[in-house]
# Entry
Amino acid sequence: MFSVDEFIRSIKDTLEKRSDSLIGNLQNIFTYNFSSRIDLLDFSPSIEPTRFEVSIIMFSMDKEANEVLNEGNDSTAFAGSEEVLPEVEYYNLNDSQLDDFFDFYEQNEETLLSQEQQIFADWFCQCWERAGGAALNLPSYFVFHDDYKSYDLKNKRWIDDEEKWS
# Structure
């Protein structure tokens, strides 16, 4: 009933329909006057697998892996976090198919999880580029919460998290 290829293709197709919204939000963020205390930007997706929803938040970070917050010192500079993409559906499934789908997912979890992460990273990177991200003067990464790796958006490759903090 379900196949890995069909599931992956469906996610790609659904995310593509969300590209214009993400690109517009990124273009807006790229106009910010970022605080000089910010060393890098982390774009972190929050994935709700039981509802097939994703949202993305940008965090401004320093080299010690701490979020840089605007503590009122300079109202003209941005620091903190910002929602880049509100919750959107990335896969559509009838409620009657949920049990069968989750059985399928469990049987293919190792393959699906890595492919899903790559799809989200590739899609975000394409939108980031189309929004003008390459002109951004801050190193920027796409990172899944509590993961050991980050996707370097400028160099289009996965790196160990320790690399970005050094």
User: Anything to note?
Assistant: The helical segments are 4-16, 19-29, 98-107, 109-130, 161-165. The CA atoms of residues 55 and 147 lie 17 Å apart. The two ends are 47 Å apart (CA to CA). The beta strands are 40-48, 53-61, 81-89, 140-142, 149-152, 157-160.
